[in-house]
Write a structure and sequence with these properties.
Radius of gyration of chain B: 38 Å
Distance between the termini of chain B: 30 Å
Mean pLDDT of chain A: 86
Largest sheet of chain B: 7 strands, antiparallel
Number of helices of chain B: 23
Number of helices of chain A: 33
Number of strands of chain A: 21
Largest interface: A-B, 114 and 62 residues
Oligomer: heterodimer
Strand order of the largest sheet of chain B: 4-3-2-1-7-6-5
Strand content of chain B: 5-15%
Shape of chain B: flat
Number of strands of chain B: 9
Structural class of chain B: alpha+beta
Structural class of chain A: alpha/beta
Low-confidence stretches of chain B: 108-137, 185-190, 327-336, 432-442, 487-498, 602-608
Radius of gyration of chain A: 28 Å
Strand content of chain A: 5-15%
Shape of chain A: globular
Helix content of chain A: 40-55%
Distance between the termini of chain A: 27 Å
Strand order of the largest sheet of chain A: 6-5-7-4-8-13-3-14
Helix content of chain B: 55-70%
């Protein structure tokens, strides 16, 4: 369908549109007009992505002299693929209705591991070894050597790509990673470098958060993006955590040991070069005098993760004299490693600010702040000079330099915490030194500064006023949209008591109580016997899940559950979890039915949809609070209180409830879908907790469902499932419309807008 | 009658393990005789088949010698060891036939009908079995099956008695129409295989005797198979080590020792034991076959849940990057990780195996054969799942309710001419109940109905509704008329018309009717299946069947006469279709006969 939003003609690939999608587009359009940032919350299952994509592409189409580039950031690769698939659908629709003018180039970008087509490189186990094996075949010096000696292996795909030169371009179209690989294979070009190259010219780029937020990655991939871009962070409810992670480093014993090995290896290399090719080292020295601005001239393939800190001017400064010579730099690193080793030998938890820590390094190891700041780039330069291709071997020393640069650059928003052992396992000594970032705004600041519009959107951004504070920006539009429902297709319930009427909770003092464990087990068992197809369960942590599943096994509940449905479990192993999920879906597809056990902050909760029959019921066992004794969390809470005046309790509750909402929100994907959500903890019945849930869940949470026991919940579930099984009118027969046709949209216009907001 | 007999060399044994007496086994229709080679030996046997209750034999391919065990009615048994399985096969078949026959004969005697005929029928078939064992006319197994079916299904037995023994149909003709029954019965076994139970490994719990620390595991072939399916490494170890390196018993002892170590959750102890005993280590280590299979499968996984791809994209996984210990991440003890297979992993694996279902179809007796069969089935093909992956992702992205559905999952009901449908309904209704006058109006065509509806709507539109839409008196009249009809039909027919007609009849009439109906069906089936008549045999059959049918015809009339007058109408309704069917058959027969006689001139029977 085609309709008008103010001066923009929107092409939408479906025959109908939800009113909230329309409202969403209107707000988004206003933000684009204002060239400012915006914050939009819309429930899952209302088609955010397609609304966003069609508005932005249509916006560009109606303003051909001022095209905006769309940079779409997803959290996971499969979301990337899904977004691109939706875009494909939209693109097909637009080219049919507008013609060639609507043609765009859209690419997804991922790491070498997901894009490489060279079977020799792909044989490597993990991402880093794939990167390293790629470098071993494509680094500039390897290729120079191979030109002289044809026996040296190179990558035929990359050579072909190089040979094609400027002819190596992607024709317009939408390319998923799969398509890129297929295209690369067909043409014999390396898809990874092709995509990297095409990113500059593409109208739409879809990639992971890290490519913008992590300065190390953003430094070499995203630096050429123009200002006139719209950046979208989808599913952004966790964006503050991503930002914090991007600037945090931890150093363990293994790291330091590895770093020592790296240093020895490098020393040997330097000796070798001194004997054979002393000129190289001298040339490097001269280059460093002029500053680090060489990066731009580096061959494409020699790039790697760049400086973890941000300021651009660092590149123009000259490298301090004391680390210009390679062996001097190694000495500095050696002293740094030694100092860190000394710090790890502690029996108590220590906490320090970066300023104090730098001062202490200066007095004990004689390394000043400026030297620290240059460590990462100096290392990078040295590794290039030494022609090191086994980058995966040198990760440890990179970590150390990463740490040094961060600690030398930032004076606030960080703390250094040294713990001799994990709180929960005090008998196992495992010292760790963590540089932890507390301020999410540091990592995202360059993004806000650089791009004209940044859109932060998700199904759960409640309370919506907290995000601007956490990320320190001023949105021009900040809206939360409700969900117009044809029928009550979600049924949230708060279960406070088990079948024996005793309260259930994962509160610390109650969670190992056998009665609670049994009540939770009975709840799942009863539900498994009435709910068809898939059930998803979320637990507060891996260790809790492990414990409760084991005790269910011991007292026989698990066996009873398995008589109804198969059981699959998320484990820490990603491959295993993926396969378990795949089998779970198979079990749901074939009608056998299954239960998936998962963890609230785990990978599954973050990115996997349990829509339709893959999830008719989701049970959230407990409130997923963070581990409150964690030193890092305490430090962060303190920082938030002092800087943003956010109370500790408020933040913890906010964080726990957004995780819970995220978990339960995974069951619904469209309005034709339906699902139940059970919050199984007595604490959810308290107003201060419950009220933090997003509005679209709260509006369906009836007062009668606030304090249920297992038997009552079972009754409600039966009723609900029976009701949902009936046929219904999709357009929302009586009262207000929930599915708009083109006519309706033209007729109603802005009336929709008022209706859809809280 | 005694034409079939078998003579084989065999050893007579009193127990399966004993050495046995060599000699000659002779079996005739009624008797089993054994003459030892050494005439002085006491183990001479001469018994009648009547006193044999059943027989067992060893399977070919197992390690046991070819044994046939005949158990006696009085208890005790004879065991014969043959020289090879071929001999055993022949004898087994013979014994099977002889036993069924003696059973059949006994039954026939008690049924006191045409015993000789039955004997003959079976005997002929017997002969054919013995003489042409590979021509699968009637194998002993099939014979057994037939007998079993007859025994289970009294209706079938009645029919069999009536037609086969009444010499209307031959045995083979009777069964030919029931091929499906015979196939189906054996087919159910292979078609619907029992899957795995959802909880499998959880079931093996050791039994303790309470006094010592010794535990006993009760292993059934089923459990062994499940273990093989669940743990390919154990399976491989079994194939490699048993029986060359260790006995089966040792193997399982080791296995459960390893399981015990797992259950103690003491990774250090497990590591220590594994270091000492390399065979034990096999069970304790992670399953490398599974790991490889996982790597294979991950490539084919649904892209919308491929978290492995994220790991390659996400820079957070770099060692020591990001926050290491913030409480949300868990700690693992990496040292002895390979000995720390978790219960959760086991659960996942189990679900997977259950979903895969049973892949082999062999007897579970011998673990060695099971293991080998399983090894074969594991060689899976790597199909091209790429396209499916792509399809799946595009299917997942579309929003189903924003657009018209792609294809209608239901075919629309299509009645070409509604009158056909209503007329047939009407006939039934007017026959069933005597009140048909109101329903007659249903024969309006849909166009007419629509037209009249539209007419009245436009009339209302134009004139508005008259104050009382319908006059009350008229309404009451209509209501009464309608409800009276409803109540009267209810009174007569109850809720379900068909059921009540039969139930209202006296029991004997009902049974008779049902019996006739089944007989007629059977005969008609044979009758129509004989056309076109191409052989003299078919001609004879048709005339036989026709005669039988014409006998039933007057019987039906009799039933009709005999019932009380108030039920006559219903019985008439029931009998009519039978008569119609029979009439149609007779008509066809006559017409065919005429055609035939016209073709072959004055000799209508010349064809025979």
């Amino acid at each position: 369908m085609k309709f008008q939003i103010e001066d923009v003609t929107v092409y939408f690939p479906y025959d109908h549109i939800y009113p909230e999608q329309y409202a969403y587009m209107v707000e988004l359009k206003r933000a684009l007009d204002a060239r400012g940032h915006c914050l939009l919350e819309m429930p899952t299952g209302t088609g955010k992505t397609i609304a966003l994509l069609s508005l932005i592409t249509s916006y560009t189409l109606s303003k051909p002299n001022n095209p905006v580039k769309l940079i779409y950031c997803t959290r996971t690769v499969h979301e990337m693929e899904k977004t691109l698939a939706e875009l494909k659908l939209l693109h097909a629709y637009q080219t049919i209705h507008i013609g060639d003018r609507a043609r765009i180039l859209a690419v997804g970008l991922s790491s070498r591991k997901n894009l490489c087509v060279n079977s020799r490189v792909l044989a490597a186990e993990n991402r880093d070894s794939v990167d390293a094996s790629c470098r071993r075949l494509t680094a500039s010096w390897v290729r120079v050597a191979a030109a002289a000696n044809p026996n040296l292996p190179t990558c035929e795909f990359f050579e072909e790509y190089e040979k094609a030169g400027s002819n190596a371009v992607l024709p317009p179209g939408v390319y998923t990673l799969q398509d890129l690989r297929a295209y690369g294979k067909e043409k014999g070009w390396c898809p990874y470098f092709l995509a990297r190259h095409m990113v500059q010219f593409a109208n739409v780029v879809v990639y992971s958060y890290q490519y913008l937020l992590d300065p190390k990655v953003a430094g070499y991939i995203s630096k050429e993006m123009q200002k006139e871009s719209v950046v979208v962070f989808d599913e952004a409810h966790n964006i503050d955590n991503v930002c914090i992670e991007a600037l945090s480093v931890s150093v363990r014993r293994q790291t330091l040991e590895g770093a020592r090995r790296n240093l020895n290896k490098m020393r040997q290399e330097i000796e070798k070069f001194k004997a054979t090719d002393a000129g190289r080292l001298r040339a490097e020295y001269n280059r460093l005098v002029e500053g680090l601005a060489q990066r731009g001239n580096l061959p494409f393939t020699d790039n790697w993760l760049s400086n973890p800190a941000l300021p651009d001017d660092i590149l123009k400064e000259a490298v301090p004299g004391n680390i210009r010579r390679a062996e001097h730099f190694l000495h500095v690193l050696r002293r740094l490693v030694q100092y860190l080793e000394g710090r790890l030998e502690t029996d108590n938890v220590e906490k320090e600010g970066p300023v104090g820590f730098v001062a202490s390094i200066n007095t004990h190891a004689g390394i000043d702040q400026k030297t620290l700041k240059f460590c990462y780039d100096r290392l990078h330069s040295l590794m290039l000079t030494l022609e090191i291709t086994d980058t995966d071997e040198f990760l440890h020393i990179q970590t150390i330099c990463d740490f040094a640069t961060l600690v030398g650059t930032y004076t606030r928003g960080f703390s250094i915490i040294i713990e001799p052992f994990d709180e929960r396992m005090p008998h196992i000594p495992d010292p760790v030194l963590q540089l932890s970032c507390h301020d999410a705004s540091l990592a995202i600041k360059p993004v806000f500064d650089r791009f004209q519009s940044v859109v932060i959107t998700s199904g759960t951004l409640s309370p919506i006023d907290l995000y601007p504070r956490l990320l320190n920006f001023h949105p021009v539009v900040s809206r939360s949209f409700t969900m117009s429902l044809t029928r009550d297709c979600i049924c949230p319930m708060v279960l406070t008591r088990g079948s024996d009427q005793l309260p259930v909770s994962t509160k610390f003092d109650m969670r190992s109580d056998l009665g609670v464990v049994r009540n939770y087990g009975r709840l799942l068992l009863e539900m498994a016997s009435v709910v068809p197809d898939g059930i998803v369960c979320f637990f507060v942590s891996y260790s809790y899940m492990d414990g409760i599943v084991n005790s269910w096994n011991e007292n026989g509940i698990l066996k009873e559950i398995m008589q109804h449905k198969l059981v699959f479990i998320e484990t820490q192993d990603v491959v295993e979890t993926t396969l378990a999920l795949d089998n779970y879906r198979k079990a749901c597809d074939c009608g056998r039915g299954a239960i998936f056990f998962s963890v609230a902050r785990g990978k599954v909760a973050e990115g996997i949809d349990f829509d339709r029959h893959y999830g008719r019921l989701v049970i959230m066992f407990g409130v997923p609070f963070q581990y409150t004794l964690s030193k890092i969390l305490l430090a962060r809470l303190e920082y938030l209180r002092d800087t943003f005046q956010i109370k500790e309790g408020d933040f913890l509750t906010f964080d726990a409830l957004r995780q819970a909402a995220q978990c339960v929100g995974r069951v619904i994907r469209s309005k034709a879908d339906y699902g139940m959500m059970i919050f199984a903890d007595k604490r959810y019945s308290r107003h201060d907790k419950r009220s933090k849930l997003p509005g679209w869940i709260l509006s369906h949470l009836r007062d009668a469902h606030l304090n249920l026991s297992t038997d009552m919940a079972l009754h409600i579930a039966r009723e609900f499932l029976r009701k949902m099984a009936q046929p219904y009118d999709r357009a929302g027969g009586s009262g207000r419309k929930t599915l708009l046709s083109q006519e309706d949209v033209e007729k109603m216009g802005d009336g929709i807008l008022n209706e859809m907001q809280y | 009658m005694a034409s079939g007999h078998v003579i084989k060399r065999a050893k007579y044994k009193t127990s399966p393990k004993g050495a046995g007496t060599p000699g000659v086994l002779k079996m005739t229709e009624n008797k089993i005789m054994f003459k030892p080679n050494d005439p002085t030996s006491a183990s001479k046997i001469d018994v009648e088949f009547r006193s044999i209750k059943g027989y067992k034999n060893t399977k070919e391919g197992s390690n046991n010698p070819p044994l046939l065990n005949l158990s006696l009615e009085q208890g005790g048994s004879y065991i014969f060891e043959f020289e090879n399985f071929l001999d055993l096969q022949v004898c087994r078949e013979f014994v099977g036939n002889a036993l069924t026959k003696s059973g059949d004969a006994a039954k026939a005697k008690s049924g006191d009908t045409a015993k000789a005929k039955s004997g003959e029928a079976v005997a002929t078939s017997d002969r054919s079995t013995v003489t042409y064992p590979d021509e699968q006319l009637i194998s002993s197994a099939e014979m057994e099956l037939r007998i079993k079916l007859l025994r289970e299904n009294s209706e079938l037995q009645n029919l069999h008695k009536k037609f086969v023994l009444g010499n209307i149909l031959t045995e083979s003709e009777f069964w030919a129409t029931r091929k499906k029954l015979l196939d189906g019965d054996s087919g159910t076994k292979s078609k619907q295989r029992v899957g795995f139970k959802s909880s499998m490994i959880l079931d093996i719990k050791p039994m303790t005797d309470g006094r010592t620390n010794k535990v006993t595991f009760n292993l059934t072939p089923e459990i062994k198979y499940q273990i093989f399916a669940l743990k390919p490494a154990v399976h491989r170890a079994f194939l490699n080590h048993v029986p060359n390196k260790m006995t089966e018993k040792d193997f399982w002892t080791k296995y459960f020792r390893a399981e015990y170590l797992h259950s103690t959750k003491n990774a250090v102890a497990a590591a220590a034991e594994a270091a000492e005993d390399e065979e034990l280590a096999i069970f304790l280590k992670d399953d490398d076959i599974l790991a490889n299979a996982a790597r294979q499968k991950i490539r084919r996984v649904d892209p919308t849940l491929d978290m492995e791809a994220d790991q390659g994209d996400d820079y957070m996984h770099l060692p020591d990057h990001g926050i290491f210990r913030d409480g949300s991440k868990e700690i693992t003890d990496s040292q002895h990780e390979q000995f720390k297979r978790t219960f959760l992993q086991d659960l996942n694996r189990q679900g997977e195996v259950v979903l895969e279902g049973r892949t082999i179809d062999v007897e579970l007796e011998d673990p060695r054969t099971v293991a080998e069969a399983l090894a074969q089935s594991r060689q899976e093909s790597d199909e091209n799942a790429k396209q499916e992956r792509l399809d799946r992702i595009s299917r997942m992205t579309e929003m189903e309710d924003l657009q018209a559905p792609h294809d209608h999952p239901l075919a629309p009901l299509c009645i070409k001419d509604p009158r056909d449908y209503f007329d047939s309904q009407l006939l039934k209704i007017s026959d069933d109940t005597r009140a048909g006058s109101e329903q007659l109006r249903c024969s309006l065509s849909s166009e007419e109905a629509y037209g009249s509806l539209r007419g009245s709507i436009s009339e209302i539109k134009a004139m508005g509704l008259s104050d009382p839409v319908v006059r009350p008196e008229v309404a009451v009249m209509v209501l009464n008329g309608l409800t009276q009809n409803i109540s009267s039909t209810k009174f007569q027919l109850g809720k379900n018309a068909q059921e009540s007609i039969l139930n209202s009849l006296p029991n004997t009439t009902k049974e008779e009717l049902l019996h006739h109906w089944i007989s007629i069906q059977e005969l008609l089936r044979h009758f129509w299946s004989s056309y076109p008549i191409t052989t003299s045999y078919l001609y004879a059959k048709v005339s036989r069947v026709k005669d039988a049918m014409s006998k039933i015809y007057p019987q039906l009339e009799e039933i009709k006469e005999s019932v009380p007058s108030d039920l006559r109408q219903q019985v008439f309704l029931l009998v009519r279709p039978m008569h119609q069917a029979l009439d149609a058959a007779f008509q066809h027969y006559e017409a065919d006969l005429q055609k035939r006689s016209a073709k072959s001139g004055e000799k209508p029977n010349g064809y025979v």
